[in-house]
Amino acid sequence: MKYSEYPNQIVESTLAEDFQPYFLRHTFCTDCQAAGVPLNVAKEWMGHSDISVTSKIYTHMVDEVFEQNRKRLADYANEKEELSQMT
Predict the structure, then answer these.
(1) Is residue 1 pLDDT above 80, yes or no?
(2) Using CA atoms, how far apart are residues 82 and 16, in angstroms rounded to an integer?
(3) In the predicted model, is pLDDT for residue 29 greater than 80?
(4) Nearest 5°: CA angle at 84, between 78 and 86?
(5) What SS3 state is found at 84?
(6) Which distant-in-sequence residues (6+ apart) come within 8 Å of 81 by Cβ?
(7) Distance of CA 61 to the CA centre of its chain
(8) pTM of the predicted protein model
(9) How far is Cα 13 from Cα 4, in angstroms, rounded to an integer?
């Protein structure tokens, strides 16, 4: 259904009754974390004066973030080992 076809009708909302646009802040900050955006950058984007607000309230650790960072650390350790074997 196109809105322009029914301009005088109320369109039923598909959002949860308790939805508030404020909830999108949590999702955005969590997505930043999952994408690897540094916390201090997310802090600025969120408009927080204190990074602890961003880290304690707005980010939610997700399995994807744990796995990304586990792999990042493993890759670093492997590169370090390869470099030490070259010398």
Answers:
(1) no
(2) 52
(3) yes
(4) 105
(5) helix
(6) none
(7) 9
(8) 0.57
(9) 17
Instruction: Name residues whose C-beta falls within 8 Å of residue 60's C-beta, 6 or more positions apart in sequence.
Output: 26, 30, 33
Contact assessment for residue 28 and residue 57, using Cβ atoms and an 8 Å cutoff: no
Task: Find tokens 């650790």 and name the residue.
Answer: 61
What does the pLDDT read at residue 75? 92
CA–CA separation, 77 and 69 (whole Å) = 12
Six token digits for residue 37: 């955006």
User: CA-CA distance, 26 to 81, in Å (whole number)?
Assistant: 39
Give a three-class secondary structure readout of 35-75: CCCCHHHHHHHHCCCCHHHHHHHHCCCCHHHHHHHHHHHHH
Q: What 3-state class would DSSP assign to 7?
A: coil
Would the CA dihedral through 67, 73, 74, 76 be positive or negative? positive
Q: Which residue reads 């370090």 in tokens?
A: 80
Report yes or no: 72 and 40 within 8 Å, Cβ to Cβ. no
